[in-house]
């Protein structure tokens, strides 16, 4: 089972769209896939037309009184299941702090699912918190959408510092450019210079595209309503490159 | 909780429009694009997946997936993405499905059993968010045999597929279809397809399982046994020639051995003069199939051999593996020539003809008309007495030959008990066969380890001539030492095991079942 986090400290960078589209591509190819919406904003849950939970399961989850399997919902797509967002996730940090091994709870929860799924995508809440640290320790790799701006690069550096400071090693970092607007001078400049410093950067890029925004109207992954769009082929390229990177 | 689809038979006069409109009243409805799926079902020649309560199919799509469904126990299916058609379990990508198949199949290879083409039309029932909550799939299925010679349509099905997290919707639809009085499918799609292709699952087993009439003549029982063994032998010829897996040849040889044992141990039912050429013929089959089987055994044991060496020496053994593979190829080619020879074909043909013509010559076959049960009692009790006598005569310092002879007698006894087991109360005879097996395993180990050790020495001298490196020979030397050590252990265990086998309780049980002094 491959566990992958889609993460950025900053919000609004195309994180949820990435998690939703990659999970959908994995499922379309026949891999049994789970997407876990860990963000209380519940955007991924909304895209799959699933009603988010209002009353919390996170308390019972962390206390070990609830199996993840009990809260899993099938999506409309074969092989693709979802753990919908739960409004109580906003308090997850507090719950985690109470647990015995606060940085490894997520991994513990996911382990029993290892026979049921080939890929698990975690749509992570922005910010660095105990939840994100859990994600770093559970995941095999992190997909990091970066908007090509200087500010965005700063947050990436912050993440690298955090990982180093907390001795989190062996995590496959896969930053890639997201919401790319080729009309913007700054985007072009940043994209030209960054690859020299960061060999880990993926070649695939996701453009700023109205088809990605339309996911909210169609409430489904791009591939499902616009399979021939540029956005769809960009996510396809990202999916292929990610698989190659994971070996 | 594992959720499982429910399948109903689709009646010929089924009104799809009515179903759709009633779904539309209660839910949103989306009709998905009709799809076509090709499934190929797999099992080993001797139906190990089926016998383990499973069904295994490959689904062809953009990715090929191998799926194991448990019929018993209603467990979640095991799925594995594969990039080539499945064969041996060890060649599958690592995972839960590969583990499951390794323990079920052991050394056996998977073979396609039947194809199914599914034409599906899916109705998705939607909730207020237009999210699918139940799928209703109308299936038109057809089957095709693997050789493509047979194909045909199967009964249509309507399959309700639950979605995780939406169980209450599913339950409502189940109630609704129940009210429509649809009939549940009595068997799985796989069973339908096998039936269509005229294949009976479990139609081959190497186990002996005859239902004999205790009062029928002994000669007819013997013919029944021998004909069945001939069927088993013939069933394994094609797989042996193609070298699909090592078990075809193994089963062919076991059937040969049992045939020879039956010929010599079911005494007085056939004219010995007429039997003589067949005895020679089956002796010949045993002989010409031996070398390939020996090499099969070493190849099967190779990993175990390698692991038994100190880690530093394990790599040194690899030239031995190449040697085995090379020689296996040569011997297999020789074997195929023998199995293709007119001599082999004629032998099986005349043997069958001879068994099927039921001429009884009482002068030369005095026991032919005896009741089967009587003859079985007499032969088994006699063999048992011999085993007991020979076994008890073995002292700690007795020569190995005495144990080898005892093994031969034990085997004869076991075969006879197995041939005739249907004549005796099941639990009692099973118990005694089990007790005998313990001794046979010990004697087998004692002899096989010695044979293996000596063969390894022979292989070593051959390899030396073929220019193998000294390190390989030295690793083999260590291996030979290990084998002799284990053989000595088996020898030591014998006394206790035989004492248990020859206990008063067992002796009484044997006498009670088969009579005799």
Automatic annotation (TrEMBL), chain A:
<protein>
    <submittedName>
        <fullName>AAA family ATPase</fullName>
    </submittedName>
</protein>
<dbReference type="InterPro" id="IPR027417">
    <property type="entry name" value="P-loop_NTPase"/>
</dbReference>
<dbReference type="InterPro" id="IPR025669">
    <property type="entry name" value="AAA_dom"/>
</dbReference>
<dbReference type="Pfam" id="PF13614">
    <property type="entry name" value="AAA_31"/>
</dbReference>
<feature type="domain" description="AAA">
    <location>
        <begin position="1"/>
        <end position="164"/>
    </location>
</feature>
<dbReference type="InterPro" id="IPR050678">
    <property type="entry name" value="DNA_Partitioning_ATPase"/>
</dbReference>
UniProtKB/TrEMBL annotation, chain B:
<dbReference type="InterPro" id="IPR007899">
    <property type="entry name" value="CHAD_dom"/>
</dbReference>
<feature type="domain" description="CHAD">
    <location>
        <begin position="215"/>
        <end position="517"/>
    </location>
</feature>
<dbReference type="Pfam" id="PF05235">
    <property type="entry name" value="CHAD"/>
</dbReference>
<protein>
    <submittedName>
        <fullName>CHAD domain-containing protein</fullName>
    </submittedName>
</protein>
<dbReference type="InterPro" id="IPR038186">
    <property type="entry name" value="CHAD_dom_sf"/>
</dbReference>
